[in-house]
Specification:
The protein is built from eight helices and twelve strands. It is an alpha/beta fold and 221 residues long. The chain folds into two domains: 116 residues, 3-Layer(aba) Sandwich (Rossmann fold); 92 residues, Arc Repressor Mutant, subunit A (Orthogonal Bundle), CATH 1.10.10. Helix 3 packs parallel to helix 4, helix 6 crosses helix 7 and helix 6 packs across helix 8. It is elongated. The protein starts with a strand and ends with a strand.
Length: 221
């Protein structure tokens, strides 16, 4: 698995490269945002530092996500909740604050890779679900509203697809987090709410995803 290490600090970058190689990964290094964006197409996962010299890492995350579904793990000294939520909202798959244990980083890389390569996220891999003029094609991982394609991030689609797998049924918050965020769901904070808000805005149909207070969410039918 080729891992793009986006890190401008040579000491940190060298340590990460050594550890990843030891664990059987094929690391490739980028020191700037420009280098990272050029290397993304050939990589299977991105470890993204947010403090880059030529562009804020959050903007890099947004640009990568607009053109690719490659898993992104933000690895940064920014430990504040605002940065965490912003990165997750822009499409990062995980977020790890420095200093961190290298064993945990490797474990998170494996977890994100497993989730991204899985054929589904606890829902059927095929079929379509219609809720009003919102059509969710589970097999093609595509969503349209009144025939208009709606681009979603991987996690946004996975949340919507999970709800669409059983339309009208309430899915508990913990159930959604566990299915979409995996083993690290306890540290996901308010990321589910951020993704639901983004989904409602992108669909232009806030009523399509109903909040069941104190329980979770359901797809209205």
């Amino acid at each position: 698995m080729r891992v793009l290490v986006v890190e401008d600090d040579d000491r940190v970058g060298a340590a990460l490269t050594t550890v990843l190689t030891h664990h059987g990964f094929d690391p490739v290094r980028a020191r700037t945002a420009a280098e990272a964006l050029a290397l993304v197409p050939g990589c299977d996962i991105v470890l993204l530092d947010l403090g880059l010299p030529d562009m804020d890492g959050l903007e890099v995350c947004a640009r990568v996500r607009r053109g690719s579904d490659v898993p992104i793990v933000a690895v940064t000294a920014r430990a504040d909740i605002a940065s965490r939520l912003h990165a997750l909202g822009l499409g990062a798959d995980d977020y790890l604050s420095k200093p961190y244990d290298l064993r945990e980083l490797v474990a998170r890389i494996h977890a994100v890779a497993r989730r991204s390569s899985a054929p589904g996220t606890g829902h059927e891999a095929g079929g379509t679900v219609t809720a009003g003029d919102v059509v969710v094609d589970l097999g093609a991982r595509a969503v349209t509203v009144s025939g208009r394609p709606v681009p979603l991030t991987r996690k946004e689609f996975d949340v919507l697809a999970l709800l669409a797998g059983r339309p009208g049924v309430v899915h508990r918050r913990e159930q959604i987090l566990g299915a979409v965020w995996g083993s690290g769901w306890q540290t996901a904070g308010h990321s589910l709410e951020v993704h639901v808000a983004s989904l409602r805005a992108k669909l232009g149909r806030p009523e399509a995803i109903e909040t069941v207070r104190g329980v979770g969410y359901r797809l209205a039918v």
